[in-house]
């Protein structure tokens, strides 16, 4: 069925809006994915750089951590002590004697050979003039001749060292070794440690200095560099002491002031100045992580000068590759979401078209179904009316059979009473005739005795008839009474047994009643009687063949304070297994050929569950050797009321389950 133009236009607008929202959503998700992936790559790079910075810090700590102790050990040597050599107190010079110089030189040589990192050991006079100088190169000690000794009064490390009183030490900034005003080639990165000496404790007033080589340390650090983390070391002025490009190193020592981070990357230099504890910075696709490195502690002056900055920088390819990969993945996510989303929207549009078409078709089918349903309801109403008529007919038939039975039972005592009255009447006529002819005493006595005997027998037969009529009257009243009254179950069963006695006299089946004494309940006795009659007659008609002997037992016991149990049992042929699952459904019968319509047990179930608020069940086994082959069990409440029955009737659930709850 084609869709209307309005519906098509509405669907297209909805599809367009959903598509736009889907694209916007895909862009947002792709952007978030790009940021997440890229940030993960950056974090991964930061972790690598931080590891390298940590390694570099450990290398510095191991290499330079013991410099102070090394100088202290040198200064406390016995060869430098004032107690070692006699000093001329009248001497006006601080110069050492030749013997003292040789002794000190030997001490310096022995001390310096113990460490391959020591480049020079010097002892300067307070004027700055070198008194003793020993250099160490390739494991060899070279003693500088007196004529080659220099005055270091103008050097900054000497000036700063004089400001630090012993036993404290001064650590110079890391710089290149300078001799006679020129940087030594090849360059030798060096750090100097100084401590002042006094004539009271040492051979002279002056300053002990150790030059410590850092070339191997810087080479080791350079070897730890990788493309993702290239190590740089920068002093406080921004000059490189170590750089991936060696040409940029030592600009402040080689008269190249433009070779500094401050000049080359002022934004990064400003950023690190504002973050003194360390951080990271991305500029021009290069990630740089940095931390401060306070290489020396304990000096009263120069400590700030010695503070360095450790940098770990990536090459541009890494972040460029990370951006490209993140962008590629984000684009893939965008395309996947967009394609999937648009496909889902398109499929939803197609389904919506089909749904509208089906809804139109369903509307037409609903109209047709309503018409058929109305017709079906009419048929059901007619069927229900017919079923009600059949039930009433069944009840009338049962009542007719009961009336016929009662009439049959009344026939004998009433007939006997008529005969007795007739005999008495004949005896009376004879007595009158004898009186006219002459009545003898013996004739009078015989006539009176005959009349008396006949009347006595008539009274006995009439009492039997009255008793039958009384039971029938009570049974008839109970059947039509719809009120809940207190009733004695024994009376109900006794009345029923009397009414059914003619049916059992025609065969060999015996009806046995076993009712607990004084079993009183508030219920509808007529319905209970009808239930027991239907169950008993059903057992008689379907459980036994004509002339077959058997027993049907009606038994009742109190289960507890609120419930009684009534069983109707027989030792007949049993119920076929195929019929047991739907036995209580209407029109189910095994005797349809005998004129049965199959409403007996259906009505019993309805009466028990809906009118009496009870439960009905059965067990049956064909060809059984047990005492009874079939047993119907009726559970009834001892106290029932009209309100309870209404609840059961109006409840849509299974009546038995409702009663249990």
Explain what the structure shows:
By secondary structure, the chain is α+β, with helices and mostly antiparallel strands. Among the domains are: 67-84 and 97-213, Beta-Lactamase (2-Layer Sandwich), CATH 3.30.450.20; 481-660, Histidine kinase-like ATPase, C-terminal domain (Heat Shock Protein 90). 52% of the residues lie in helices and 18% in strands. It contains 15 helices and 21 strands. The chain has helices at 5-64, 67-75, 98-112, 156-162, 215-223, 261-264, 266-274, 316-437, 441-480, 489-505, 525-543, 577-580, 600-611, 642-650, 655-660; strands at 118-125, 130-137, 140-143, 170-171, 175-176, 178-179, 182-183, 189-197, 206-213, 230-234, 240-242, 279-283, 286-294, 307-313, 485-488, 509-515, 520-523, 550-560, 563-570, 615-620, 630-637. Strands 1, 2, 3, 4, 5, 8 and 9 form a 7-stranded antiparallel β-sheet that branches. Strands 11-10-14-13-12 form a 5-stranded antiparallel β-sheet. Helix 1 packs across helix 8, helix 8 packs across helix 10 (489-505) and helix 11 packs antiparallel against helix 13. The longest helix has 122 residues, at 316-437. 29% of the residues are buried. The model is unreliable at 87-93, 297-305 and 643-661 (pLDDT under 50).
